[in-house]
Design goal:
Blueprint: H1 2-6, E1 7-11, E2 17-21, E3 28-31, H2 39-51, E4 53-56, E5 59-62, E6 68-71, H3 86-89, H4 103-113, H5 127-139, H6 144-155, H7 166-171, E7 172-174, H8 178-194, H9 202-213, E8 218-219, H10 221-225, H11 230-237
Parallel strand pairs: 3-6
Antiparallel strand pairs: 1-2, 4-5, 7-8
């Protein structure tokens, strides 16, 4: 239920209502197999992911900072699952496809999980440092031609746009919204800094395009029938 993640009001020993915060009041939220969550509970995440706040009982509660939502879903099993609404998908910055591990990776997984190896966790960053890095990303300059490229790329995904190529008109039912343009620039900034650049270029936008766009586009039946995957469509748009 929504109250299981948001929290709920209880009648305390003084006969007054007290709000007990739920697990959403954390820095990192892991929603494992989120598509098994009923739609009403999924909707409870919308305000938290966009506004970084929760409204319940007529009161607004700010969530801690930094706030990060990580979710998984199994693309194979469909029994007992609920499709995520587009409004919720749009609030995730990335959709990262996790394929089968390589032989070397699977060897490491099996070794680590079938023996008595003890993992020692070491703190690398604290919340204050993460916020500083987020502020640093905001200060990274972006040239107008990179901004224009990102916005035009998103415009190409909209079948009713004058920028739309034929592949969009043929295979896309619904294109990406302004959050995609925002995240392309934020993602390009991060990618540029990790590569030692002082400012992102078009190649940085292209490097983050697939995980940012693949969950924001809706293919039609013709695309599925002709074997056009979302990544193939994005590649052609690039």
């Amino acid at each position: 239920m929504p109250s299981d993640i948001i929290g709920s009001e209880i009648l305390d020993e003084n006969r007054s209502f007290t709000f007990i915060k739920g697990p959403l009041f954390s820095n990192i939220i892991l929603a494992d197999e989120i598509n098994r969550t009923p739609p009403k509970t999924q909707s409870a995440l919308l305000e938290a992911m966009q506004e970084r706040a929760i409204t319940t009982g007529g009161k607004n509660y700010k969530l801690p900072s930094p706030f990060f939502v990580l979710a998984t879903q199994n693309p194979i099993e469909q029994e007992g699952t609920y499709p995520l609404p587009e409004a919720q998908l749009d609030r995730f910055m990335f959709n990262i496809w996790v394929d089968y591990p390589t032989f070397t990776e699977e060897m490491a997984i099996v070794k680590a999980t079938t023996s008595n190896i003890e993992t020692e966790l070491k703190q690398i960053l604290d919340g204050e440092q993460i916020i500083q890095y987020q502020e640093l990303i905001r200060r990274v300059p972006v040239s107008d031609n990179v901004l224009e490229y990102a916005v035009k790329l998103v415009g190409k995904t909209r079948f009713n746009s004058e920028l739309a190529p034929q592949i969009t008109k043929d295979f896309i039912t619904w294109g990406a919204g302004p959050r995609a343009s925002q995240n392309l620039i934020i993602g390009a900034k991060c990618h540029a800094l990790l590569k030692g650049k002082f400012s992102p270029d078009i190649e940085d936008v292209q490097a983050v395009a697939k995980p940012i766009l693949r969950h924001r586009l809706v293919r039609n039946y013709r695309a599925e029938a002709e074997g056009y995957t979302m990544d193939r469509i994005i590649e052609e748009l690039l």
